[in-house]
Description:
15 helices; mainly alpha; Ribosomal Protein S8, Chain: A, domain 1; 4 domains; 68% helix
Amino acid sequence: xxxxxxxxxxxxxxxxxxxxxxxxxxxxGIGFWVVWRLTRHTRRAAHEQAAELIxxxxxxxxVGAEEVKQKAEADVQEKRAELNRxxxxxxxESDVRLREIRAHEESLALLDYQLEQRHERxxxxxxxxxxxxxxxxxxxxxVRKRLEGVSQxxxxxxxxxxxxxxxxxxxxxLRVLRRxxxxxxxxxxxxxxxxxxxxxxxRIASKPNNDLTATIVQLPSExxxxxxxxxxxxxxxxxxxxxxxxxxxxxxxxxxxxxxFDPVRREVARSALDALVKDGRIHPASIxxxxxxxxxxxxxxxxxAGEEAVTKLNINGLHPEIIKLLGRLKYRFxxxxxxxxxxxxxxxxxxxIASEVGLDPNVAKRAGLLHDVGKAVSGxxxxxxxxIGAEFxxxxxxxxxxxxxxxxxxxxxxxxxxxxxxxxxxxxxxxxRPGARAESMTSYIQRLGRLEKLAVSIDGVQQxxxxxxxxxxxxxVSPREVTDDRARxxxxxxxxxxxxxLQYPSTxxxxxxxxxxxxxxxx
Length: 523
């Protein structure tokens, strides 16, 4: 029953006589009861809301704790990974240091062994010297006794006889000491030379040269070939006349071949033909225009190439004409080795070797860069490229040392300074290093065939085998027809014929084999 129903029943009751105070008491009770019920309801709602808020807060706290836990675990994993990386890095450093320590220990052990060997050699030499001293003392005593017996001789005769006896007694020992001294000096010189050459070669890291192929120009379509040829061939004739090359147009799809012995002309023709194909207007007037423009561009490129080489080597004071001629070497090749790259490499090698032996590296570098400049000179001048290049740079103010080094780098002119020998050595190293020079498969096979035929043509030779890519030839001779002395002569004869009749890079080792085999079978 609600408070309103309760109040209505009391008001309608005839039993109770309600006066004003009693009504007030009843109304106050009813109001108190109403307020109490409202307060209780409000409190219950507040408790429920508080419980919901507490539950939400608990869930949020659990989520936040989970996030904090995950973040903490991620931080721990990251720290663990970082510590593992640091541990691995330090482990690698420890291994590297351990290997270095082992290498130092090995080098120290080698030095100890060498010191022991030298100590033993010194002891042997000291013993030999002591023995020689004792022998000389014994000889002196014997000579003194003989002098006592021949006191009737005059002083000059005694001195002469004594000198002859001492020379006879000590001649063998002096020859042995002289031979040992010379061999020791030669070994030390060879060791120093090997060390200097290896150090200089290891400091050069040159890129291998690519195979030189014919210059090919790609065309957008087959119709372009007809436009290049032109009506009655007037366009192709005009192009070949303006560039000095030969255009080969065959059945190859969408390409033409430019043929010329001069790589500069070939590059001008390639650049002009590319521009003509892109422009689309191909007729004699436009051909002359584009060829002239391409020639100007190639001249600019050659000058830039020469300046880049000079800047790379930090060489000052070269005449502009020499720099321009150097740039033309960009389009020259020797056994498929780019001549400009070869000249720069030779300059670096000469400079390094000069620094190692205490000479001026700048002079050696200058001579190394200019040693092949004669290959870029036009063909009107007669003579080898070394002599022509020397005359050219001499005309533009180069020093006599550099001029002689350039002229003598193929030993056509007598070397007058050490710098000429440095250029010869650096030129050889740059030419024979692995990957420096290549040749086509056809010429390579032909060269090996000529080498074997040249060996077989000598009397007494049974077989010849070219091995090591043509750098060695092994010759088998008949043991019945050829003696040991004749085998030695065959080796010398073959060397002379190879040097006179063949063109080859680097060196060729000749091995003559003479052996007898006897086989029996027991049954």
